[in-house]
Amino acid sequence: MSNHALENAAQAIRQSRCTMSFTGAGISVESGIPPFRGPGGVWSKYDPGKFEKAYFKRHPKEVWPLLKKVFYDLLDDAEPNAAHYALAELEAAGKLAGVVTQNIDSLHQAAGSATVHEYHGSIRRMQCMSCRIFFDANAISLERLPPPCPACGGLLKPDFIFFGEGIPTDVHRAATDLAKQADVCLVVGTGGQVMPAGRIPYIVKNRGGTVIEINLHDSDYSYTLSDYYLQGKAGVRLPELVRAVLG
Ligand code: APR
């Protein structure tokens, strides 16, 4: 891969007033979590229609075992990888203002990132659809499915966005505010195919900012949005980039 792109990308971050990162499933693949699309992707094995909020409410007994299999069983012992740690290091060095992630695995926080906006929510919380109380997912046993709400016995839902569900306004506002302040957006491991999340890097670009993309394959962003495209695994290219920035 051309070091020219790497050096120019590193210089853009060194010279930036405010760099943010926008991440997707690709940054967690090297932590053992499959992506949604592409070879071996979740949606090549499971029907995304089952994960629509309306379908879930009508068929909780069918969907909860899928949620356990696709998310809870996989994420339980997932660890951050070198890419997550590289972003945490860049933030600790004062060169990254924060991360907007589409991921629900909370691996950015586990790696030490302090400012993380979970645009699609998090698997770490559940909410009762009757009494609306939130619970730490670790406190809810998945032996019996659907797990009953400890407070009222109602239907618990993981606190991440299902298809057909809106983005909570507070996290949408925090994420877009960060993008409006940023003059560099470091896009890692996402094809930007899901909206409104996929628009985040365009907020930076449309205000004259620079977009750096790290992806295993070229994406919809690569030929329209990205100023620098660093091809390869996030766990390899992102630490390289951070070393080039911090020296
Ligand atoms: N390193 C870097 N990029 C990778 C790697 C890797 N090791 N492995 C895969 N990728 C890239 C793929 O090339 C692809 O562009 O990560 C991206 C994964 O794409 P998706 O699976 O579509 O993930 P994402 O873009 O985060 O999906 C967005 O879709 O289903 C919804 O809510 C779900 O948050 C998710 C949203």
UniProtKB/TrEMBL annotation:
Q: Does the keyword S-adenosyl-L-methionine apply?
A: no
User: Which residues does the UniProt record annotate as the domain Deacetylase sirtuin-type?
Assistant: 1-247
Q: Which CDD domains match?
A: SIR2-fam
User: Any idea of its EC number?
Assistant: 2.3.1.286
Catalytic positions are 120
Identify the enzyme class: transferase
Q: Return the protein name.
A: protein acetyllysine N-acetyltransferase
Q: Name one Pfam family in it.
A: SIR2
Q: Which residues form the signal peptide?
A: none
Superkingdom is Bacteria
Species name: Pseudodesulfovibrio profundus
Swiss-Prot/TrEMBL keywords: Hydrolase, Metal-binding, NAD, Transferase, Zinc
- Does Zinc appear among the keywords? yes
